[in-house]
Design brief:
Strand order of the largest sheet: 5-2-1-6-7-8
Oligomer: single chain
Order of helices and strands: EHEEEEEHEEHEHHEEHEHEEH
Number of helices: 8
Structural class: alpha/beta
Bound molecules: NADP nicotinamide-adenine-dinucleotide phosphate
Shape: globular
Amino acid sequence: MPATTNGKRPVNLAIIGATGVVGTELLKILDERNFPIGQLKLLASERSKDTVINFRDKDYPVEVATKDSFKNIDIVLSAAGSIINELAPAAIEAGAIVIDKSSAFRMRTEVPLVVPGVNDSAIHNHKGIIASPNCSTSQLVVPLKILHDLAGITRAVVSTYQSVSGAGSDAMEELEIQTHNSLHGQPLEPKVFTKQIAFNLIPHIDKFNKDGYTKEEEKLIEETRKILNLPQLAITCTAVRVPVLIGHSESVLLEFARPISVEQASIALANSDLIELWDDVEDNIYPTPVDAAGKDPVYIGRIRKDNSSANGLHLWVVADNLRIGAALNAIRIAEYLLEHKLLRQPVAS
Ligand SMILES: NC(=O)c1ccc[n+]([C@@H]2O[C@H](COP(=O)([O-])OP(=O)(O)OC[C@H]3O[C@@H](n4cnc5c(N)ncnc54)[C@H](OP(=O)(O)O)[C@@H]3O)[C@@H](O)[C@H]2O)c1
């Protein structure tokens, strides 16, 4: 049996989407955090069936994910999109808990949607599946929860500036190729995105709904309401894709029921283990995506009084979408399950 860390028993883990950009980050963070792993199964699609991934000095062949992939598995970390709809019932049947990064289950009432440090207690209500939010939601709810507890948020207006890694590895490659081609006078061919992304930005992420909002904007709105348990919160969003490789940024205007000063907000946010405040405009201190890439905190700067409302504050919120927005959030949920001895017993066969 492999050695345990922090007194936790090693966990049999399956990762669906192990070859993707979030899957790669999952493996990196599991190692960084010494996550206690017993058996490890790396799963992806047919496309990757000859791939081998090295993890902690051992080679793992990538297997095609099927309903038979989950024997003896404690936790399934899924970062593979909607295929989890087909696979989750078999994983649960085998006794595993599924932590899913896709939007497949997030808004189902029986599925907890969790950002550890914001609404951990929801994990206890799981029935085999725990959903991890959209990347732009995960970083947003961290300051919103703290400021809501302080002064009662009555309205939120969010504009996102989302990096291409939020759309996966093909999107990162598209930005790199288009940047090169653009600088060398070669033709640009949008494939992943609807328009040129190099030296441009695109006010369109996911599909358009009938009301003119995009699915991405709807996800941020609905998921924020669910995580904060504020189903009536007045919140609106415009989501924009920008030519940044890693790191989502958000301009956030919050209006409050009670007066709140910049100082009160700053002290409360700085007290959180999840947040780093970078806020000193006199010295040009504010976070950018390049500062946040590869790091764990949610970075906050540019906190200022809103000049157009009575009790309003502006924030600039930046985080690594692949970490807090995806892989790190899922691993923190897994760590919570271990910490609170909430693993199920894999079904023997
Ligand atoms: N990127 C982010 O910032 C972010 C943030 C939050 C949530 N998410 C969610 O995380 C998931 C993965 O995103 P990503 O950015 O890592 O995308 P990606 O780089 O395109 O990777 C997709 C992964 O899913 C696997 N996959 C696709 N279809 C599959 C199937 N039918 N069966 C098994 N595996 C399959 C792929 O395997 P092959 O390589 O074999 O095709 C690959 O490993 C998506 O649901 C996404 O919405 C992403």
